[in-house]
Amino acid sequence: MMNQHETPMGLPPAPRPAVYAASKDAGWLSKVGQAAQAENCRFQTSSSITSLINQAAADSDVACVLLDYDPRIQQWTSIEQLLFEKNVVAPVVLVLDEASGMAASEAVARIAHVVAINTMELPEIIETIQHAIGLSTLVEHQFDVLRCHRLYQGLPDRQRQIVDYVVEGAPNKQIATKLKVSVKTIERERQKAYRQLNVRSTAEMTRVVILGSLHDVVFPAGKPAKPAGGLRLDSRSDSVGPVAPITTKPTNVFNSQIPR
User: Tens place of pLDDT for every residue, the chain, 260 residues?
Assistant: First the structure.
């Protein structure tokens, strides 16, 4: 007899993706839980954003992360850094209240893939989760660009110079001549760069450099998303320019500025 947890082929079913939500509002979490169930997702909660991200870091299938954000007591930079350090690669839904205003504008521009308000009802929350999940592939690419950029920028100047020449196709002897060092020095520094970039070949190294160079395209400084309708946070900010609207539509996918 087939076990109830097995597929007809005798293999266990793939785990359902999980919706993660952090909030101290039990009523809001209850609605998000219903929305997750409607989308056939597991549901994980915590009152603490830090605790939630730590939980998500141990999960291999995170559909999206909803964070109830209060700019008066939370710092978006800390959230952003933790998401990166814990390798949580999932769309982030930043949940705000309507009074957040300009206090939340930077967080919206820097870490939100989708923006929502905490007065949403169940159908709107379901739509928000659907929009977030639809961004998964794009967010994975975005994270890869950021990871490669940080790896490349973390190289010492000399190694970065050598890597640039290698990617351009220059042989070790030519690089040595240009930098006025021995070929053995180039070989040694090149191997160090391989380890630093966590690659095993010139092809892999080239990919890191190419993706890393896309950082300023994917994360343009000072160019937040243009309003596309919906409820606005505000019209302008001297530091970040126009602020994205609060909407369940995906916003700011290419407008996060990650501290280097």
Answer: 445 545 556 666 778 999 999 999 999 999 999 999 999 999 999 999 999 999 999 999 999 999 999 998 899 999 999 999 999 999 999 999 988 878 899 999 889 999 999 999 999 999 999 999 999 999 999 899 989 999 999 999 999 999 999 999 999 999 999 999 999 999 999 999 999 999 999 999 999 999 988 888 777 665 443 333 333 232 223 333 333 333 444 344 333 443 33
**Angle at alpha carbon of residue 230, lines to 227 and 232, rounded to 5°:** 65
- One-letter amino acid for residue 85 of the chain: E
d(CA 31, CA 14): 25
Question: Which tokens belong to 34?
Answer: 């219903």
Separation of alpha carbons 204 and 185, rounded Å: 21
What is the Cα–Cα distance from 64 to 41, expressed in whole angstroms? Answer: 10
Alpha helices (H) along 135-247: 136-153, 157-167, 172-179, 183-197, 202-212, 215-218
Backbone angles phi, psi at 250, to 5 degrees: -60, 130
Angle, CA of 133, 250 and 41, to the nearest 5°: 20
